Design the sequence.
């Protein structure tokens, strides 16, 4: 008659390191896949608290380790995509800056019409800049542009004496895949706002020419 198995004897068997390693590798691969999917679907930066919820962990340190592993994998792949670490423990999956101007027509985001885009490019390229200066250069219609850009979270205003100084937000940098370093950002802005900057410059030069030659303008009228 066959003896019944003793569960206590089975539990006392030594662990299998190879099997445990396989389990750990599978767990890590699953967590990396979850993080990648979350960053892709979100389409915006996610902070560590949100990423912890994705992998079902309370450990920020462990989740951050997983994210850093995923970042290194993207570097090794050398594709058009990258994962960037932003301030305040946020991470974003995005197209590399050198590709954004090539595929911007396909981006499915709230698009700015020509007027607000020119105003935004003017603010971004010359920030911080007084709202008064923006209105003087871009015209009275720029009041509406400024309000729209604020509502979208792309710019913000700060009190500077009696005037309001306008500058871009962190969300602006995230939205267009730019660094928050203003000096470096201005170099990349030409790739994204190239045409808007050129058109804005041409309009301002034309405006300045008219102001410098009022007599000619009167004769033409």
Sequence:
């Amino acid at each position: 008659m066959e003896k019944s198995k003793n569960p206590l004897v089975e539990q006392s068997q030594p662990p299998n390191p190879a099997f445990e390693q396989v389990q750990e590798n599978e767990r890590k691969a699953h967590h990396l896949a979850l993080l990648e999917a979350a960053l892709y679907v979100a389409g915006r930066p996610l902070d560590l608290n949100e990423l912890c919820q994705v992998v079902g962990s309370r450990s920020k340190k462990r989740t951050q380790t997983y994210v850093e592993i995923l970042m290194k994998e993207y570097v090794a792949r050398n594709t058009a995509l990258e994962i960037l670490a932003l301030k305040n423990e946020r991470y974003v999956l995005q197209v590399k800056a050198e590709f954004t101007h090539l595929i911007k027509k396909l981006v499915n985001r709230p698009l700015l019409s020509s007027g607000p885009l020119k105003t935004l490019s003017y603010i971004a390229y010359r920030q911080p800049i007084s709202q008064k200066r923006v209105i003087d250069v871009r015209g009275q219609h720029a009041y509406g542009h400024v309000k729209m850009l604020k509502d979208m979270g792309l710019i913000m205003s700060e009190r500077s004496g009696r005037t309001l100084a306008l500058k871009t937000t962190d969300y602006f940098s995230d939205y267009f895949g730019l660094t928050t370093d203003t000096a470096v950002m201005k170099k990349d802005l030409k790739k994204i706002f190239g045409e808007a900057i050129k058109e804005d410059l041409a309009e301002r030069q034309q405006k300045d020419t008219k102001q410098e030659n009022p007599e000619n303008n009167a004769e033409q009228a």
